[in-house]
């Protein structure tokens, strides 16, 4: 690449990086205008659940508690599956070291570190396309990648997770593999080594060895297409071709670390099973598949995919056309990028999370159309035509992406943050917290307490049984479930599955108390405010019918801004809706609906029932004089989640209320054994 092309590349990189940072840092201005919403005691609130996971490891590393391959004392109790990774994640290591060096908290560091790292992928992408001679594609692909809605949303401030460099590393590996194939021997050896080094760094960053193995396989096979000796496809099996370039291949494999490549075999099988085979099945193994409830794992249609990537459906279609043309005319020089490109293609079959890998390639395709246009010579008007092509490409790429200003929103409120800190103060150090998985690592990080599952271990059968404790109508069933899992864990469940017991048989044994034993460690059942919105899915898993392979999706509705009618104390007004607590009916703009059962939670609990209709309502008076109203069906109304959390109605034989900060958090101690 000549000096002129290098200067153009640097100009494109500078422009796109600046724009990418500006779009992400706009959130900082908003946050600083309202610090009470976005900070807790000066620490930024994370905008991603997994951020607590990587912060937890950073904190453990700083405190000298990180023990590679040793049992993690706070995760996945009581099983011994959760061990510290063999090497601390690079993102955790950087967070730990930089927070000490700069004297800032890990949380506040993530506000700036994540956006800066997120835009670095532009560098290898632009240099690759400029080397091919496609400057417009270089701009369009990098801008589309940086400003695509999906990538912005996944690389916002305080979103500490590997997404922020999951484009940089594979694109850098691809760039160096490409250069090793199309440069003179001495330089090609250096590039092959650099590709291997970045492959090791990618493993350190993401720890998905299967992707690195895919790069190795594609790299080796790609020489069969580059060093063609015939028009037949069978030439790729000609060993003479590979002998010519054996040095580059060996140098890459050695520098990438053969151990990592070997580990990649098992990881590749795992990734294929999880993301291609089980991802959208109703069950994962024998138990319900929680992936169907995760927003980022949801299927997307083409129009939505266009919105997430190109920003416009017509631009999206044009990008696909351009991408096909690019692949047809440049396939040999693109082959080494196939692993990351394939991940992007999974967005068509799989989940929206994969769209971030697709966006840069769509931008490449769109820009390539204009690069092709500049190749056609038109006498006298050639310069004008090229300038117009550049200007139009910039406008059509930028306009659909321009509205993608996303203000980062925390995944935890300041009140819940404070309650998790409080949780670590009011419970013994040996305590274990029974709660839904979303805030598992938040509790491990903020409260320094063990949990039964978290966002990195929710795919196991244990998650199903935790869900049943929320959905169960019987406190004894909920207690038996907690006792059983505390004593046999996921290990015991898997052992019974190997003994050919059906999931339903296992469930029946657990529900009946066959595995009950005194709890070995203090155990607490924690309910949090976010679970009201998530209850539909929690209940879906908790009421799972193994024969029908589905559960009851029964979300809990909520009325806001409720107050007592000044003219009638028997009427509660919630916007345009009115609830008569004496005559038991709900009056909406359209109709009058009978209430079957009304629960009123003030200082005491009062339940009124007329046994008519299918509507159940909770009216909860707050200390702040506000009124919360919840709309339910029969099954959710009698669930432990509603009874113990919303109504604070519990059985002291099994549980003891120890902390009530409804609706933020309610905490119960689980009795070591049922009281006589």
Give the secondary structure arrangement, pairings included.
Layout: H1 3-33, H2 35-38, E1 39-40, E2 43-44, H3 50-62, H4 90-102, H5 106-118, H6 122-132, H7 135-147, H8 149-154, H9 168-181, H10 185-206, H11 209-226, H12 239-244, H13 246-255, H14 258-277, E3 283-284, E4 287-288, H15 302-308, H16 313-334, H17 338-349, H18 355-375, H19 382-401, H20 414-426, E5 432-434, H21 440-446, E6 450-451, H22 461-471, H23 475-498, H24 503-512, E7 523-528, H25 530-542, E8 557-565, E9 568-574, E10 577-580, E11 585-587, E12 592-601, E13 605-609, E14 615-621, E15 627-632, H26 634-637, H27 640-646, E16 655-661, E17 665-670
Parallel strand pairs: 5-6, 5-7, 12-14
Antiparallel strand pairs: 1-2, 3-4, 7-17, 8-9, 8-15, 9-10, 10-11, 11-12, 12-13, 14-15, 16-17
Helix pairs in contact: 1-5, 1-6, 1-7, 3-4, 3-21, 6-7, 6-9, 7-18, 7-19, 9-10, 9-11, 10-13, 11-14, 15-16, 16-18, 17-18, 18-19, 22-23, 22-25, 23-24
């Amino acid at each position: 690449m000549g000096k002129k092309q290098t200067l153009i590349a640097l100009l494109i990189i500078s422009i796109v990086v600046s724009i990418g940072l500006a779009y992400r840092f706009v959130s900082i201005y908003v946050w600083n205008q309202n610090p009470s919403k976005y900070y807790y005691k000066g620490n930024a609130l994370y905008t991603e659940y997994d951020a607590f996971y990587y912060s937890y490891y950073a904190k453990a590393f700083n405190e000298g508690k990180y023990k590679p391959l040793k049992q993690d004392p706070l995760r996945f109790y009581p099983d011994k599956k959760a061990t510290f990774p063999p090497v601390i994640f690079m993102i955790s290591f950087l967070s730990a070291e930089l927070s000490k060096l700069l004297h800032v908290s890990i949380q506040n560091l993530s506000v700036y570190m994540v956006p800066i790292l997120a835009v670095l992928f532009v560098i290898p992408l632009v240099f690759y396309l400029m080397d091919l001679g496609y400057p417009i594609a270089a701009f369009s692909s990098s801008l589309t990648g940086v400003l695509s809605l999906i990538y912005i949303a996944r690389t916002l401030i305080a979103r500490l997770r590997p997404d922020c460099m999951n484009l940089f590393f594979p694109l850098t590996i691809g760039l160096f593999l490409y250069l090793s194939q199309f440069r003179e021997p001495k330089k090609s050896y250096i590039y092959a080594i650099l590709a291997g080094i970045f492959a090791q760094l990618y493993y350190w960053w993401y720890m998905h060895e299967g992707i690195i193995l895919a790069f190795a396989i594609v790299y080796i096979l790609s020489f069969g297409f580059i060093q063609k000796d015939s028009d037949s496809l069978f030439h790729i099996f000609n060993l003479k071709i590979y002998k010519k370039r054996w040095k580059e291949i060996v140098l890459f494999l050695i520098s990438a670390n053969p151990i990592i490549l070997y580990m990649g075999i098992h990881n590749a099988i795992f990734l294929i099973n999880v993301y291609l085979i089980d991802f959208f099945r109703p069950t994962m193994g024998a138990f319900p598949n929680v992936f169907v409830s995760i927003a980022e794992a949801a299927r997307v249609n083409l129009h939505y995919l266009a919105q997430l990537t190109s920003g416009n459906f017509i631009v999206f279609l044009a990008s696909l056309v351009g991408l096909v043309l690019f692949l047809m005319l440049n396939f040999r020089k693109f082959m080494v990028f196939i692993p990351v490109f394939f991940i992007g293609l999974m967005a068509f079959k799989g989940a929206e999370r994969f769209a971030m890998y697709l966006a840069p390639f769509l931008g490449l395709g769109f820009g390539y159309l204009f690069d092709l246009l500049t190749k056609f010579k038109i006498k006298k008007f050639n310069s004008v035509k090229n300038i117009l092509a550049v200007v139009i490409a910039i406008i059509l790429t930028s306009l659909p992406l321009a509205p993608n200003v996303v203000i980062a929103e925390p995944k935890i409120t300041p009140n819940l943050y404070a309650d998790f800190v409080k949780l670590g103060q009011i419970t013994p150090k040996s305590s274990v917290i029974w709660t839904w998985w979303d805030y598992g690592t938040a509790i491990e990080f903020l409260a320094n307490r063990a949990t039964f599952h978290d966002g990195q271990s929710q795919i196991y059968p244990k998650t199903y049984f935790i869900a049943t404790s929320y959905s169960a109508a019987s406190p004894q069933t909920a207690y038996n479930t907690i006792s059983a899992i505390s004593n046999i864990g996921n290990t015991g469940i898997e052992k019974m599955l190997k003994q050919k017991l059906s999931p339903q048989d296992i469930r029946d044994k657990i529900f009946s108390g066959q595995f009950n034993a005194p709890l070995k460690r203090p155990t607490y059942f924690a309910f949090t405010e976010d679970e009201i919105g998530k209850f539909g899915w929690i209940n879906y898993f908790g009421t799972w019918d193994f024969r029908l392979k589905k559960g009851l999706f029964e979300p809990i509705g909520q009325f806001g801004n409720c107050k007592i009618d000044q003219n009638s104390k028997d009427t509660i007004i919630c916007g345009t809706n009115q609830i008569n607590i004496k005559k038991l009916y709900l009056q909406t703009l359209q109709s009058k609906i009978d209430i079957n059962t009304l629960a009123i939670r003030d200082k005491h609990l009062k339940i009124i029932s007329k046994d008519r209709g299918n509507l159940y309502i909770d009216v909860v008076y707050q200390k702040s004089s506000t009124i919360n109203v919840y709309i339910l069906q029969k099954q959710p109304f009698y669930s432990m989640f509603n009874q113990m959390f919303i109504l604070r109605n519990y059985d002291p034989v099994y549980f003891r209320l120890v902390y009530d900060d409804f609706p933020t958090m309610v905490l119960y101690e689980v009795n070591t054994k049922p009281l006589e």
